[in-house]
């Protein structure tokens, strides 16, 4: 990516607006002229560019509320790539002009678009746009350093340094790295080792106590029918989230995921771009392919140079043999009442310690609930007759038998009809489970504190955690032998 021109503008609601700095790159402009041919539009003078940009951004201070070239309904702005319509001399449209603003300072640039004359590629396909915005953001960080006043000596001194800084980071109009606060405050000669480049995913420098936080979160989905004619389904999706507060331009961190001896290998692994290297065997396992037992089963090492903000280091799937909670749901109807029978059993491999666990039993296309005579072996039952809903709060532990039951009958004799749902007609009904289990994962995947390696001058504090969540966890009434064919694709409300 190369820049044709760069501007730094200060303004106060359009009043006393001025260009504090501008730079044109002649070699890039020659390339733009050759690429555009007869459709070439030259970069206008600073005064002309300033008025066009302020008008487009609505900062011109003009008393006219409506500006045809900006506010007409036929004009479709495609932010952040602005169009500046030049009237005279050299009529044409300048595109794409990128601009970002903070307080009373606006930074703008005109990147070179490598496209045939007359073509305007989609913004999503323009690498020059994202790189141009990244460059402006880095330049903004350099100019508006913490502790400096924008209109004071701090900004003036940084603007004075800007020509020297651009020689380092943008020679001949081609950015090499982002200008960062502190590292480029004073231009310095290149050393024999060169300048350590800042990666695109790390937009600043951290100062403070070193802390590395790693969290493994797994989400389990399940569709249980309790019927031999339909196979139960479940899957597990995991993410490893990190927040690394470590000093240095390019700190190195290695996180290792481990599995129990009998654990199923992780599959469909996707990693963040900051991961510097990875064993190819880690990426080859796919849940689409049949696992023959020879797949890579860890440990999974992820060396990376972390960004400052929290990020997802990797995601994966896992094929576990059974879902964490197996359920049986049976409904039988006699006249206007339903006989309800529910059995929920926690699998022995799952930790019996919940942050919360609830079972919701809605009933659709019936009158409102009247008499409810339902008993549970554990937990508490909340009845919402207006919503035709039973909420079974199972608490934080299953009993020692790891099994809970619900039995009883419900009479639907309310004065008004209850909620409706086209899918749940007749005896077609479901239980939806909501639960969260801290300090466990269904696959057994974990991160040990001692396995996290940080190559930094300061010894960091390592914090690791893991938890299991439910999502779309359904248990259907097993007495229904013929469910609608589209039940797999449509989730109930």
UniProtKB/TrEMBL annotation:
Per UniProt, the keywords (alphabetical) are: Cytoplasm, Endosome, Lysosome, Membrane, Protein transport, Transport
Q: Where in the cell is it found?
A: Cytoplasm, Cytosol; Late endosome membrane; Lysosome membrane
One Pfam short name: Adap_comp_sub
Q: May I have one GO cellular component term?
A: late endosome
Q: What Gene Ontology biological process does one annotation of this record name?
A: protein transport
Membrane topology term: Peripheral membrane protein
The record ties this protein, via InterPro entries, to: AP2_Mu_C_sf, AP5M1, MHD
Signal peptide as annotated in the record: none
**Classification via PROSITE patterns:** MHD
Domain named MHD is located at 209-476
Subunit structure, interactors included: Probably part of the adaptor protein complex 5 (AP-5) a tetramer composed of AP5B1, AP5M1, AP5S1 and AP5Z1.
Family from the record? Belongs to the adaptor complexes medium subunit family.
Name used for this protein in its record: AP-5 complex subunit mu-1
**Gene name of the encoded protein:** AP5M1
